[in-house]
Amino acid sequence: MLDSMESLLYISSMHNTTRRSSESDVAGSNWPWGSMFWFGTLSGGSAATRIYHRRAYGALGLLVLAVAIGIALDTFLGTGTSRWLAGIGTPLAFASISWSFYRYVHELDELAQRLQLEAVLIAFLFVVLGGIVLFSVSVFTGWVAHPVWVLLAEPVRGVGLIVAARRYR
Amino acid sequence: MKNRLRLLRAERDWSQAALADKLGVSRQTVNAIETGRYDPSLPLAFDLARLFSLRIEEIFEPERSNGSGGIAQRPDVG
User: Fold this and answer.
1) Contact pairs from chain A to chain B, CB under 8 Å
2) Which residues of chain B have a CB within 8 Å of the CB of A16?
3) Mean pLDDT along residues B50-74
4) Quick one: chain B helix, strand, coil %, rounded to 5?
5) Under an 8 A CB cutoff, do B37 and A25 touch?
6) Higher pLDDT, B62 or A140
7) Which H or E run contains B13?
8) Ramachandran bin of A80, using left for φ above 0, alpha for ψ from -120 to 50, beta for the remaining angles
9) Nearest CA-CA partner of A17 in B40, B39, B25, B12
10) Does residue A9 surpass a pLDDT of 60?
11) Are B4 and B63 in contact (CB under 8 A)?
């Protein structure tokens, strides 16, 4: 008898949260949709996000700088350096960004990791399906898409993040 | 999984952000747990229990609405 009363009190207390303590209780999850869509990150201000952004933009900045120097050398010396720098620098820069993203995800809390996992899964399936569709198109038409289209996976990941986070609003 | 997290937090007059700081998680994670949309991992559940000086089962209780005695259907692991 006492047990059942205790469990009744316990269950009713789960729904009886009359005393609200904070301003954020009514704000819901308040996900940063802009940050998720534009940058694929769940926060603009966390240490992990700042490190990831710094590394990613640093790698892109170095790539742009290297290609710009290459173009300048091409213009004045006619060496064809920019092609070499773009050809070698682009995979290096994106390998660095990928590694930074991998480290970033490991720094996240468990819900954020789950969301990133779902978003990456959506982006992965997009790339696999997109590749197969483009293969079929090339079989029938002979048109071959430039492989750089896979970069579209990144905005798809941002959308995937939003789709995944909607469940936890 | 039902839980008393919101009540326990309110008793201590902690904001979601303050609780999130103590646990080392985001405020969204605390919100998702409170609203029952997300079940925390076992380490996080232990951290919560330790923080509130309670046992895990005093904070969390499984839903018992499917007539299966509270045991959820095992997901496919293949």
Assistant:
1) 75
2) 7
3) 79
4) 50, 5, 45
5) no
6) A140
7) none
8) left
9) B12
10) no
11) no
Q: What is the pLDDT of residues A139-160, one digit of tens each?
A: 999 999 999 899 999 999 999 9
B15·A111 Cβ contact <8 A: no
ipTM passes above 0.90: no
- Contact check, Cβ <8 Å, A109/B41: no
> Domain-by-domain residue ranges, chain B?
2-55
DSSP H helical ranges for chain A: 2-15, 33-39, 47-77, 81-107, 110-141, 153-165
Mean of pLDDT over chain B: 88
Indicate which of B3, B19, B26, B33 best probes the interface with A, i.e. most A CBs within 10 Å of its own CB: B26
Which H helix or E strand runs over B2? strand B2-3
Residues 6+ apart with CB under 8 A from A49: A41, A42, A43, A104
What mean pLDDT do residues A130-145 have?
A: 96
Is 3.40.50.1100 the CATH number for B2-55?
A: no
CB-closest option in A14, A20, A31 to B28: A31
Q: Which tokens go with A75? A: 């213009």
